[in-house]
Amino acid sequence: MSTAAAGHHDHDDHDHGPAKGWTRWLYTTNHKDIGTLYLLFALVMFFIGGGMALIIRAELFQPGLQLVDPLFFNSMTTMHALVMIFGVVMPAFVGLANWMIPMMIGGPDMALPRLNNWSFWIMPFAFLLLLSTLFMEGGGPAGGWTLYAPLSLQGGNSFAFVIFSIHFMGISSVMGSINIVATIFNMRAPGMSLMQMPLFVWTWLITAYLLIAVIPVLAGAVTMLLTDRFFGTSFFNAAGGGDPVMYQHIFWFFGHPEVYILILPAFGIISSIIPTFARKPLFGYASMVYATASIAFLSFIVWAHHMFTVGMPLAGEMFFMFATMMISVPTGVKVFNWIATMWRGSMTFETPMLFAIGFLVMFTIGGLSGLMLAITPADIQYHDTYFVVAHFHYVLVPGAIYSIMAATYYWMPKWTGNMYDEKWGKIHFWVSTVFLNVLFFPMHFVGLAGMPRRIPDYNLQFADWNAVATIGAFGFGFSQLIFVWVIYKCIKGGEKATDEVWEGADGLEWTVPSPAPYHTFEKPPAQYS
Amino acid sequence: MSSPSSYYIPHEAKWPIVGSIALFAFFAGFASLLNGGSWIVMAIGAALLVYMMVRWFGQVIAESENGQYSAQVDVSFRMSMMWFIFSEVMFFGAFFGALFYARTFSGPWLSGMGEGGAAATNAVLWSGFDYVWPNNGPEKLGGAYDAMHWFPLPVLNTLILLTSGVTCTIAHHAIKHGDRAKMVRWLLATCALGFFFVIMQAVEYYEAYAHLNLKMSTGIYGSTFFMLTGFHGFHVCMGAIILLIVMLRGTRKHFSATNHFAFEAAAWYWHFVDVVWLGLFIFVYIL
Amino acid sequence: MSLISRVFLVAILSLTGLAARADINMPVGVTPISKEVFGLHMLIFWICCVIGVLVFGVMFYSMFKHRKSKGAVAADFHESTVVEIIWTAVPLVILIAMAIPAAKTLIAMEDTSDAEVTVKITGYQWKWHYEYLDSGINYYSSLDAEHNAARQVGSGIDVGQFENYLKEVDNPLVLPVGKKVRFLHTSADVIHSWWVPDLAVKKDAIPGFINENWALIEEPGTYRGKCTELCGRDHGFMPVVVEALPADEYDAWVAENAPVEEVQVTESASATAVASVDDDREWNMEELVAAGEGVYVTHCASCHQADGAGLAGAFPAITGSAIATGDHAAHIDIVYAGKTGTAMAAFADRLSNSDMAAVLTYQRNALGNSVGDVIQPSAIKALR
Ligand code: HEA
Ligand code: HEA
Ligand code: CUA
Ligand SMILES: [Cu+2]
Q1: How many CB atoms lie within 10 A of CB B19?
Q2: Is A146 helix (H, G, I), strand (E, B) or coil?
Q3: Which residues in chain A touch residue B125, judged by CB atoms under 8 angstroms apart?
Q4: Looking at the domain that runs over C285-381, which CATH code has it been given?
Q5: Would you state the CATH architecture of domain B12-68?
Q6: What mean pLDDT do residues A194-211 have?
Q7: Global pTM?
Q8: How high is the pLDDT of residue C16?
Q9: Which value does ipTM take for this structure?
């Protein structure tokens, strides 16, 4: 068999550039093409989800209902979250994984290239299905992204479409994750041990396991919703012996690991960038790996911290409080390791580093407010207020989104062969960061002062801070046009990038030419064998 | 680990996009059907999906038989199958979780056992409700019913599946020794047992609906019973079809003592289905 | 108390004073629990601030000192088991220090024993129903009508004129000061959550289950809160108002409002209720339509809209509805029994026979419909 294989690969594997014409993108099996598709998809969705956020913020600019019906407002909240989580952060991370993992481990491509193509090409269709519900009679889903029963069961025609779009995206995520696991275990350069892998690869490996473990659970949860609505089951109906709270348990068994799915790859990105610009090796590589694994493990046993007001038995509340607090320890280890990496380095502050530092500071703020939420008696006051909204936007926007932007600036020269415009990159960072805090910081205040989340209208007491937040939102939203502009310019041309691009960069991806050739490691890299 | 000079990387994949369109049509069609629309779009989607799978797998089989795949590709396939099965385990986990939750938490709470508001729940909302498993809730949704007894059908089904596990293993040993004909014979037996299981399951469902008044709408008991056994039955169907295809490939002289990944994948899947059944038998029927 | 801890305490308290501004911080509240929770909140807040200052301090120091433009040369260290152990252990200790007071407060919060007054609170889309289990008083509480008019899209009414915009109800929950009150939370449709920040009481109302918690109010006053679990279209318009009266005034209020005899069905407390009228009497159309309008506005208009036009796709129009202009049986059934799986709830327990007959007749002969027939209370009575 192997002889036959040798006979084939000559004309099959090598000397292939990208195919001509637009079908290149439709049929491609190349990890770089697919990575590009994922990243562009995420960028488009970011503007769609962001546009929805701007509708939310515009309605909240002043007390009183000015613009939209409350039902439409609720569906904006729901869709905004679904689009941002499933359509922006997850695909962007998968796109980065596609581009970088094969290069970082010295492999020729992803392990299952055709499946890879399918994983991507499901996404546009799944979102077509989801977004189409906005145009249905009765509008899109309006029960919050958590789709709690029994409210979500009241959804109109959109309900079944939403459930199936979640199944659809789930298929993509699970296939994508399986592919990543197989790639990492099976495609590494000969001689590269697991503990020699870059942290981005490690964090993605662990993320992939989280995805494989929890996406099917979400599929199960929404399937039960579907049968409760259409087939007469009573999983979430007390009259038949079920329990609406059971939905929440199953959902959050998925949902909490999900939020770490949205942050672990970010940790990997930051662990690549900070050493480069500190010109110093990452501090505590091994403990970074163990910390990531601990976070992933703990994420399975803390889900009910989203449910402190549902009336759990006392022992349950205690357990989930303590377990949740524990997550701060490994996360703290990561933060300290990054700072120790910067300590006595020789730092410069190009755009990727700025975004990485922005991540570090603001993610920590979000993490600390998360810790406050973990304290059950206090969470009973915080729960379902804007304090929670502030918490998760601090970990998601300057957390997940900033890491994606940092990664884009960091690796874009390798992708395109051109340097991006450093001046505009820096402007993008500073404008974003200022507006971002104007946008989300006041949410802590109104939340503590008693403003519930998911409401289209509020008491005058909250008016000032909401107006401020809305100004921040429009500022932040429109500054993202700078990002698009910088990317566009960089693809079109610019100063040629060197192979190493960054002075302090370390890793296999910097040993290949810029732009990276269509097939990177046709021969395994030498340094590990 | 990677030795790229022998790694097979296909360069064009036309089936995935067909698969996406098929799934889109299937899901959108199914949703419209549930909203009272017609079933046609869904059927088209399903047909296209089957067609896509036949062609895609056909291509993979051809490549495999041409010897385009290296040992490394084989490992990739194996890992994928393993983790795919793990994801299936988690999917069933959600439904088992629902069963455990309903039995150990919500059921007793509704009948007033436990801390917090449980006593009041029973006294104020559902007074007189007594919880025993199986149960269809305080409002007895679906009306009076009889529970599905573990004897005789489920026991028979257990025996069928356990036997099919054995026949499957015999077939595996056969192909490992290069005895393709024997493999085909034992696979035939395995498939037959699989389909027999599905038929018995259908008989059981008929019994439930026709004589026990046990339906999907029979409260939480009916819900968990039919969802767990139903999804399992669906997986048995799939597994049996996969085994059938493997068997047919065997009759076409596919597979050798060293190269029979498709067989092994099917066998793993079959064993997984088997193990799930044991869980079902214990937690759904006996306990 | 050692000097250090005393200094620490004084520092905390003075900073707490600064932070206790109602517009940007949690209210201290008026119950022992709310005060404890506030203290806990401030404690963890300041701990987080200290951690933040230390962590960011080190980081910014390093960013300032160890930059290339200042000629910093990178060191090469990348491991130290000792510091790794330290920065694992120290946070752990801090966490334990936070967990102990938290656990104590939590245990106190869950102890609902020895309550003197028990109120059952039921969430509806989108109003609350209060039922005093001891005295039998019960009534609905929903958003004040003026606020409700002002909050409609394009109402043209300046919401700035209402001091407590969206935090005013028709019938507040009246509670005694100085007595332990136990709340039983449940819901009739979807999940709601009853929250009054000043009482530190927030509990989800789960349909089919009852959750408990309690409050001991220490000062008379009016305390305002909101529904905090997304419960559909008008989730934002479901306020909670608690009026805490001194014990004697509370007793007087109870004496005045306690129902004289057993009530059989929960009667509507709306001003237009026509509950006392005999169900067996024949009513004429004018009476029914007149009574029905009030019932419609209180119970139905939030979904089907005041003009009966509904909201396309979500809530069907009553105007021209096949059901509301068709057969009596189907019309009665959808209101009496509701429709499972939709927001249309069963009104059998919420409306008296005459109220239901009135609203049905109203729907048939108003809102642009003119079927011209009546549904008598006796027809509803026959179903019970
Ligand atoms: C990227 C996503 C992300 C991340 C990383 C986190 C991280 C954390 N989250 Fe968050 N969370 C969300 C996304 C995320 N969360 C979302 C989306 C929701 C709302 C969902 C919804 O309802 O819609 C939510 C809601 C949420 C709740 C529920 C609130 C409520 O609804 O009432 C809670 C409660 O415990 C919580 C806690 C935490 C904790 C303890 C962490 C920890 O992991 C944080 C750990 C980090 C640190 C603590 C900072 C760094 C550490 C140090 C500097 C060391 C020193 C520290 C100590 C000594 C303690 N989160
Ligand atoms: C990764 C996830 C993510 C991200 C990135 C964001 C980003 C933002 N979010 Fe979101 N958000 C969530 C996840 C996220 N959010 C979740 C999970 C919820 C909870 C939902 C629920 O309760 O169910 C939530 C809820 C939520 C709320 C509370 C809604 C409510 O409770 O009713 C608000 C309110 O301000 C908000 C605002 C914003 C804003 C202003 C941004 C900004 O960062 C967005 C930046 C804006 C842009 C990038 C837009 C750019 C647009 C233009 C320049 C205009 C041109 C437009 C087009 C071309 C279309 N979000
Ligand atoms: Cu009731 Cu929100
Ligand atoms: Cu969580």
Answers
A1: 23
A2: coil
A3: 238
A4: 1.10.760.10
A5: Orthogonal Bundle (1.10)
A6: 95
A7: 0.93
A8: 54
A9: 0.91
